[in-house]
C-alpha cells in the first residue's frame, strides 16, 4: 500500500495560483478588452464624429430660430459628412480612437476584477463579487469608477487628438479647427506648443467623464447580467449565453448615456478649445467653468446635445464590446 503525503500548509493554494488559467488573468482581460473595444469602435466611430460636431455646434451662443445650423440632426449630419467628406470623413480620428480604446478599456476591464476583489475584501463582503456570487452595487460602482479614471488618464492625449481631428471640416466647421494631418502630426504639434501639459490638457474633464461612465457601465452590466440569468433561466439563458450578454449590454448602454452625456459635452469642448497664450484654454479654465458657461449661454438642454448620436455610438459600442470580450474570454478558456 502506498502512502500519500499530505501537502504542506499553503502548498495547495500555491499550486492553484501556479496553474491559474491564462484566460482568467488581468493581463488576458486587458488584452481581451483592448481587442474587443477596438473592434467595436471600428463600427461606431462614424457616430462619434457626428456626436462631436453636434456637441460643438453653437458653442456658447444663444439659440436663435434663424441661426444657421449645418448639422440639424443625427441622420442629416451623417448624410452631410458622408456626402462632402466621404467614408474617410466619417472615420476621422479612428487611429487615435484605437489607441484611446486600448488605454481606456484595456485598462479598466483589466483592472476591474482585481480592484473589485480588493474592495470586497476591504469591506468584508463574502465571495469577492465574482460571477454567481453576491454583488454589491456600491462596491461595483466604486471599482468601475476607479478603473475608468485610471484608463482616462492614460488615454487622455489620444482622446485630445481624436476630438480635434473629428471636429475638423472644410465644408461645415464647428468649434476651433486644428487641422492635424494625422495622429502623429497632432501629438507632435501639441508637444511642441505645450509639452506634457499640452498633451494632458483636459484630462480632468476626461477623468470625470470616464469615472461616471465606467462606474455606471461596469456595475450596471454586472447587475443586469445577473438579473437576466436569474429571471430568464427558464428560457435557457446562462451567464455564458450571447443573448445574456446582448440584453445586459443594451440596458447598460442606455444607462451610461443618460449619466455621461453632460460630462461628454464638457469633455469635448475642453479638449477642442484653442490653447491660450498662458498655456490654458481660451474658453474654459476647468470643467466646472465649462459646465457653468455652457448652461448659462445655451441652457441646461445643451448638456444633452448629441444625445441620440451618443447613444447610437455608445449603445452599439457597449453591446459589441461586451459581446466581443465575453467571446474572446470564452475562446481563451477553450484554447489556453
Automatic annotation (TrEMBL):
The lineage of its organism: Eukaryota, Fungi, Fungi incertae sedis, Zoopagomycota, Kickxellomycotina. Gene3D superfamilies: Mitochondrial carrier domain. Keywords: Membrane, Mitochondrion, Mitochondrion inner membrane, Repeat, Transmembrane, Transmembrane helix, Transport. GO terms for cellular component: mitochondrial inner membrane. It is found in: Mitochondrion inner membrane. Its main location: mitochondrion. PROSITE patterns: SOLCAR. It comes from Coemansia javaensis. Solcar repeats lie at residues 24-118, 135-227, 240-331. The chain crosses the membrane at residues 109-129, 141-161. Belongs to the mitochondrial carrier (TC 2.A.29) family. The keyword Transmembrane helix applies. It is a multi-pass membrane protein. This is Mitochondrial oxaloacetate carrier protein. Pfam families: Mito_carr. It comes from the Eukaryota. The keyword Repeat applies.
Amino acid at each position: 500500500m502506498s502512502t500519500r503525503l499530505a501537502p504542506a500548509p499553503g502548498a495547495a493554494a500555491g499550486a492553484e495560483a501556479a496553474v491559474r488559467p491564462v484566460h482568467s488573468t488581468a493581463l488576458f482581460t486587458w488584452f481581451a478588452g483592448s481587442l474587443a473595444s477596438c473592434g467595436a469602435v471600428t463600427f461606431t466611430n462614424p457616430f462619434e464624429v457626428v456626436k462631436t460636431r453636434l456637441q460643438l455646434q453653437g458653442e456658447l451662443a444663444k439659440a436663435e430660430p434663424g441661426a444657421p445650423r449645418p448639422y440639424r440632426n443625427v441622420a442629416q449630419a451623417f448624410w452631410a459628412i458622408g456626402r462632402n467628406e466621404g467614408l474617410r470623413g466619417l472615420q476621422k480620428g479612428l487611429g487615435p480612437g484605437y489607441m484611446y480604446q486600448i488605454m481606456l478599456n484595456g485598462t479598466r476591464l483589466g483592472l476591474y476584477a482585481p480592484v473589485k476583489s480588493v474592495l470586497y475584501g476591504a469591506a468584508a463582503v463574502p465571495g469577492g463579487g465574482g460571477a454567481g456570487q453576491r454583488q454589491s452595487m456600491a462596491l461595483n460602482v466604486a471599482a468601475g469608477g476607479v478603473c475608468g479614471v485610471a484608463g482616462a488618464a492614460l488615454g487622455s492625449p489620444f482622446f485630445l487628438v481624436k476630438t480635434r481631428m473629428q471636429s475638423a471640416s472644410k465644408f461645415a466647421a464647428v468649434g476651433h479647427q486644428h487641422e492635424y494631418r494625422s495622429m502623429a502630426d497632432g501629438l507632435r504639434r501639441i508637444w511642441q506648443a505645450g509639452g506634457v501639459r499640452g498633451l494632458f490638457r483636459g484630462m480632468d474633464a476626461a477623468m470625470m467623464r470616464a469615472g461616471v461612465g465606467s462606474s455606471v457601465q461596469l456595475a450596471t452590466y454586472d447587475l443586469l447580467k445577473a438579473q437576466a440569468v436569474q429571471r430568464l433561466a427558464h428560457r435557457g439563458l446562462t451567464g455564458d449565453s450571447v443573448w445574456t450578454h446582448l440584453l445586459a449590454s443594451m440596458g447598460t448602454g442606455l444607462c451610461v448615456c443618460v449619466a455621461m452625456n453632460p460630462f461628454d459635452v464638457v469633455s469635448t469642448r475642453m479638449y477642442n478649445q484653442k490653447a491660450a497664450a498662458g498655456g490654458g484654454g481660451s474658453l474654459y479654465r476647468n470643467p466646472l467653468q465649462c459646465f457653468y458657461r455652457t448652461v448659462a449661454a445655451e441652457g441646461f438642454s445643451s448638456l444633452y446635445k448629441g444625445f441620440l448620436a451618443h447613444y447610437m455610438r455608445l449603445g452599439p459600442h457597449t453591446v459589441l464590446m461586451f459581446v466581443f470580450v465575453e467571446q474572446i474570454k470564452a475562446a481563451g478558456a477553450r484554447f489556453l
